[in-house]
Amino acid sequence: MKKMLICLFLLIATLSGCGLGASQQMPIELYSGKPLHIAVIGELPEVELEQVKFNTISFQELENINTISSAYDAVWVMNSQFDTADQERYVEVYTALSIPIFFIGTKKSYLPFVFEDMTYDDAPDIPGDYVAGYLQIDQEQFQFWGFELNDNEVTERNVLDAYMRIFTVISELQ
Q1: 38-61 CB burial, b ≥16 within 10 A, e <16
Q2: Which of 35, 59, 101, 129 is surrounded by the most beta carbons within 10 Å?
Q3: pLDDT for 11
Q4: What is the rounded distance in angstroms from the CA atom of residue 16 to the CA atom of residue 155?
Q5: What is the pLDDT averaged over residues 99-125?
């Protein structure tokens, strides 16, 4: 009987230490692939990885398509820049790049950025994605990506997880 009480006590102690009811978050798998060089329009993401380097560029610099396409692996446009990014004059730039462009923090996917006569404010909300990526392959083909946040919550952890997935996509295109 004494052994059974000790076993019961140990079982209860073990279970109470497991944190029943606490959410179990999967660890974020940090990107460890090929070195990446990413151009950013807007504020730089708060990510420090040895293999990923960010450089701030302007929309004016982005218009030099050949230089940007050869110097970087991707372009990120942060949501603070969407009011400029959705201007018609940039549609041709986005579709002419030979590297993917990602719109960070979008609620409208890539649509207002690659279709003329559509502004960010006028485009319909598309639930789920936090980041939309776009790459024009040729005149008739393009590729796009959507990256959701875990539980659709904008938290530092969830955003970091999305960034790690974007880095993997970029590296697979090289």
Answers
A1: bbbbbeebeeebeebebeebeeee
A2: 101
A3: 32
A4: 28
A5: 94
* 140 class by beta-carbon count within 10 Å (0-12 exposed, 13-18 middle, 19+ buried): exposed
Question: Which segments within 22-88 are labelled E, that is strand?
Answer: 36-41, 52-56, 74-78
User: What are the angstrom distances between the C-alpha of 102 and each of 22, 41, 131, 134, 164?
Assistant: 34, 10, 7, 6, 13
Q: Could you tell me which residues are beta bridge partners of residue 102?
A: 76, 133
Report the predicted TM-score, pTM, of the whole model to 2 decimal places.
Answer: 0.84
User: pLDDT tens digits for 5-32?
Assistant: 333 333 333 333 444 433 456 788 999 9
40 phi/psi in degrees, rounded to 5:
-125, 130
Please list, residue by residue across 10-37, b when 16 or more beta carbons sit within 10 angstroms of its beta carbon and e when fewer do.
Answer: eeeeeeeeeeeeeeeeeeeeebeeeebe
Rounded Cα gap, residues 32 and 49, in angstroms = 8
Q: Which residue shows structure tokens 């990446």?
A: 36
